[in-house]
Amino acid sequence: MIVASSSTSVKQDYNEYMWTMRKACCDYDGDSTSQTTLPPIAIMSHAHSCKSNNNFALAQTLDEMEFERGIWSAACDGDLMKVQKFLNQGVHPDACDAAGYTPLHYAALKGYINVCQTLLETGADINAVTRAGRATALHRAATNGKEEMVKFLLGKGACVTLQDADGRTALHRAVINRHFNISTLLSHEYPELKSIADDKNKLPTDYDQN
After folding, report:
1. Rounded to the nearest 5 degrees, what angle is found at the Cα of 205, between the Cα atoms of 16 and 146?
2. Where are the ANK repeats (predicted)?
């Protein structure tokens, strides 16, 4: 779960939620496996937009339509065949949507290893950062508790010491969001992370509530 925060990186993820929330609402089964909590305003928009298909269509912006028709939505849904189709048509694996997210950012957030594998094989930058939040795929996987994705990205050479717009590493994010398996993994395999402070001069252990 993403904790309440005024940090830049959390605020910027709001853009993604605004484009994906309608589908997430209609597919919601009461047990969020992504462990990601939408901002209150997004939840209200969810409820409103699911009242009717007509309202849904009217509420779409051009950016939303571009997202849903593009490779980003396919990556977010884990639709490997559709992702491959876009790549075969010449879409760059590092293409950014209007908010500055690449397909890899979406697939890593959701834990779709097969999609990430394909994107990396076709030239995606494993360390690409989001435009404003400066988050990598590793940051997003750690934030969302995707342990197998974290292991996959590390195995593919993701830079573990990169810091986001708040100066936080993947370890900071794992600790803050209480994903203890991931924080233990990162701490043991990369002990140098424990000495990296964020922009508030806090070490990852400073966020440990246990």
Report:
1. 40
2. 99-131, 133-165
Q: Determine how many CB atoms are found less than 10 A away from the CB of residue 64.
A: 19
Token code pair at residue 206: 């400073």
CA 73 vs. chain centroid, Å, equals 13
CA distance 166 to 193: 15
Query: What is the reported pLDDT for 69?
Result: 85
Q: Report, as ranges of residue numbers, the positions in the chain whose pLDDT lies below 70.
A: 1-60, 63, 210
**Roughly how many angstroms between the first and final C-alpha of the chain, as a whole number?**
16
Q: What tokens were used for 47? A: 């409820």
SS3 160: coil
The first and second tokens of residue 14, run together, are: 């709001």
Which pTM does this prediction carry? 0.74
